[in-house]
């Protein structure tokens, strides 16, 4: 079995289509169609990680998206502006992810043969943060630009090794201050931004979630998911944590590892197929 970090550079078949959800170069999503050709296949919107930084993009989600397509899912790997790019970070990253989650399902329904069925958000690391956040926008104040009057039309969120507590990530200095780069400064000094950006501050989301996190994660401590899952359940959310003993940060996005069945199980659980 290859080391799981190899997934960051492993090649995958080209997407079946790329759609634009906005006018900017990074406002796009790569679509892969279900190999079995089934009508109304579930759509998995993939939000890639990389600590919100521009040197990481959606390309490394190719292997997982291709594997999901082989199992009868439609997938949409979204791109978004990231820190280090013009307009990335606060607030552009949030603008893009909100817009993608709200518009890509309709674009996929037109492009995927047979249309799509239920929608699930799946995010890894910083993408897990963004997926949890996107599902929680009905909790934002009405004055916030990303506010929704009701929760988005998704069946649930699968968050893989997510940065689920942004304020804590800032305090810990994860990845050399990545959370501070996203917010434009330390979270403690930007309480208004943090309150809008931290999914832990937006509970209950009213959207079911499954967190999959390895106990040996070297990049995002598993305590992030433990704390989020505990707080979400206390707030009344349907939230499950699948903690994988001895598993690191990248294994959960690698279809060649023993961790991958836990991801498939999380999707099945949310979609009611198991």
UniProtKB/TrEMBL annotation:
Hydrolase found in the keyword field: yes
Record bears the keyword Hydrolase: yes
Keyword annotations of the record: Hydrolase
GO MF annotation terms: hydrolase activity
Domain named BD-FAE-like: residues: 30-228
Lineage per the UniProt record: Bacteria, Bacillati, Actinomycetota, Actinomycetes, Streptosporangiales
Species name: Actinoallomurus vinaceus
Pfam families the record matches: BD-FAE (PF20434)
Protein name: Alpha/beta hydrolase
């Amino acid at each position: 079995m290859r080391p799981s970090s190899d997934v960051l550079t492993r090649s995958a078949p080209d997407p079946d289509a790329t759609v634009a959800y906005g006018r900017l170069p990074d406002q796009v999503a790569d679509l892969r169609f279900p190999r079995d050709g089934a009508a109304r296949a579930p759509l998995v919107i993939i939000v890639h990680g990389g600590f919100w930084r521009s040197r990481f993009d959606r390309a490394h989600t190719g292997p997982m998206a291709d594997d999901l397509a082989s199992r009868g899912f439609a997938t949409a790997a979204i791109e978004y502006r990231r820190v280090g790019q013009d307009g990335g970070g606060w607030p552009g990253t949030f603008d893009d992810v909100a817009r993608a989650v709200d518009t890509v399902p309709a674009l996929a329904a037109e492009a995927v043969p047979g249309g799509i069925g239920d929608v699930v958000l799946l995010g890894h690391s910083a993408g897990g943060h963004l997926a949890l956040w996107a599902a929680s926008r009905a909790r934002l104040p009405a004055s916030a630009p990303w506010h929704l009057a009701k929760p988005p039309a998704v069946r649930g969120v699968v968050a893989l090794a997510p940065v689920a507590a942004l304020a804590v990530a800032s305090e810990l200095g994860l990845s050399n201050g990545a959370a501070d780069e996203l917010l434009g400064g330390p979270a403690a000094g930007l309480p208004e931004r943090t309150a809008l950006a931290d999914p832990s501050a937006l509970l209950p989301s009213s959207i079911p979630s499954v967190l999959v996190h390895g106990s040996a994660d070297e990049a995002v401590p598993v305590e992030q998911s433990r704390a989020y899952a505990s707080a979400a359940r206390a707030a009344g959310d349907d939230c499950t944590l699948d903690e994988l003993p001895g598993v690191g940060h990248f294994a959960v996005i690698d279809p060649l590892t023993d961790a991958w069945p836990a991801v498939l199980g999380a999707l099945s659980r949310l979609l009611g197929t198991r």
